[in-house]
Amino acid sequence: MSTKETAEIMGHGFFGSCAPGALGSSRKRAFQCKMFSLGIFQWMPKSGGKGLKMGKAKVRVSGFSSNPEAVYTRAHKIISELNAGTYTGPKNVRVK
Q1: 2 pLDDT more than 50
Q2: Angle at 48 between CA 43 and CA 54, to 5 degrees
C-alpha cells in the first residue's frame, strides 16, 4: 500500500499535549490545567514519500479537564464529518 493510499485511509486525527491522559502529559500538569484543547489535523504524506506527518490543525476543540470525555466525543464526531467531507462547522469549537 502506498503512502497516499495510507493517508486517504487514515483521514484525520487529533492531538492535545495538555489533554488528560495524553502521552507526555504528567498527571500533575494535567490537573493544573482547567481547560485543554485538541487540534484536529489531516494526515499528510511526508515530502520524502515515506511515512505520514500531521498537517495543520483544521479544527480546535476545547473544554474542561474535569469532563474530557465530552471533548473527545465531540472531536471524534468532527473527525467522522471531516472524513466524510460533510463538516461545515466553525474552526474553534468549545464544549461546555
Answers
A1: no
A2: 20
90: Cβ contacts below 8 Å, ≥ 6 apart: 59
Q: What residue type is assigned to position 28 of the chain?
A: K
Q: Give SS3 for 91.
A: coil
Which residues, 6+ apart, have CB-to-CB distance to 96 below 8 Å?
63, 64
The residue written with cell numbers 466525543 in the block is: 73
Residue range 12-62, pLDDT digits in tens: 888 886 777 654 545 555 456 788 999 999 988 888 878 888 899 999 999
DSSP lists the bridge partners of residue 36 as 63
What is the pTM (predicted TM-score) of this model? Answer: 0.76
CA distance 59 to 75: 9
Grid cell listed for 23: 502521552
Joined together, the cell numbers standing for residue 33 give 490545567
pLDDT the model gives residue 29: 52
